[in-house]
Write a structure and sequence with these properties.
With about 250 residues, the protein is an alpha/beta fold. About 35% of the residues lie in helices and about 25% in strands. The chain contains nine helices and 14 strands. It has a six-stranded mixed beta sheet, covered by helices on one side. A six-stranded mixed beta sheet has the order 7-8-9-10-13-14. Strands 11-12 form a two-stranded antiparallel sheet. Helix 1 packs across helix 3 and helix 5 packs antiparallel against helix 6. It is globular and about 55 Å long. It binds zinc ion (ZN). Belongs to the metallo-beta-lactamase superfamily. Glyoxalase II family. One of its GO terms (biological process) is methylglyoxal catabolic process to D-lactate via S-lactoyl-glutathione. Thiolesterase that catalyzes the hydrolysis of S-D-lactoyl-glutathione to form glutathione and D-lactic acid.
Length: about 250
């Protein structure tokens, strides 16, 4: 049974340590803050043996050097992470990565950055999606184009709906405010937004989130629905996605 240790990092990132008790292996999923990751691992009695980066941004790979220096961990990352740090194993869509007996599939979710990847572990029903998909949101489109980003979101949609998604930021409350503006008649979304407000008022995380619920409520994952196309325009789902993304950027 995989153990997932989630903790806040930097101002609004989540850090994740993924531990396989049978093999003793531990993977750091992204590295917003190397020192904090090392402290968290030590408190759990785990040694980080691998780093899995989702993309090159400093709040995702900036802690690699400190963790490698302290533990000798192996860095598994998409090529673009070379901008920031050395990589032991470059991975791309379709590759697999092992943690003990568990296997993660690497999925291309480019759009926030060109080379962004997610790690899906089917046996555990979980996926680490970095800044591609957030609860009720998606990452800003810094490097990709709408066609690329939409294709990536479709790949996330195709995961089993019971999959639990671990995204990298607590942006949910702001995302919910925009989602209600983007899709005002969605009853499932209204209910979800109330739950989110309650959780945040108690200081609780809204991450991870279930894919099934995101499929019903996340405006970016719903860009090809009739409701979204009517409200946001666009002749293709990618164009509708682009309109929603631009709407969020200016919200
Ligand atoms: Zn990012």
């Amino acid at each position: 049974m995989l153990e997932i240790h989630q903790f806040p990092c930097l101002s609004d990132n989540y850090g994740y340590l993924l531990h396989d008790p049978a093999s003793g292996e531990t993977a750091a999923i992204d590295t917003p803050d190397g020192a904090e990751y090392l402290r968290q691992a030590e408190a759990k009695g785990w040694t980080i043996t691998q780093i899995w980066n989702t993309h090159w941004h400093p709040d995702h790979a900036g802690g690699n050097k400190d963790i490698v220096a302290a533990t000798g961990a192996t860095v598994v990352a998409p090529q673009e992470v070379e901008r920031l740090t050395s990589i032991d194993r470059v991975v791309a869509h379709g590759d697999t990565v092992s943690l003990g007996e568990f296997t993660a599939k690497v999925i291309d979710v480019g759009g926030h950055t060109h080379g962004h990847v997610a790690f899906h572990i089917p046996e555990a029903g979980i996926a680490f999606v970095g800044d591609s998909v957030f609860a009720l949101g998606c990452g800003r489109m810094f490097e990709g184009d709408p066609e690329q980003f939409w294709a990536s979101l479709k790949r996330v949609r195709e995961l089993p709906p019971e999959t639990t998604l671990y995204c990298a930021h607590e942006y949910t409350q702001a995302n919910a405010a925009f989602a209600l503006h983007a899709d005002p008649d969605n009853a499932a979304l209204q209910h979800y937004a109330e739950e989110i407000a309650d959780k945040r008022s108690r200081g609780e995380p809204t991450v991870p989130m279930g894919l099934a619920r995101e499929l019903e409520t996340n405006p970016f994952l719903r860009a090809d629905t009739a409701e979204m196309q009517q409200r946001w325009g666009g002749n293709t789902p990618a164009e509708t996605f682009a309109a929603i993304r631009a709407g969020k950027d200016g919200f």
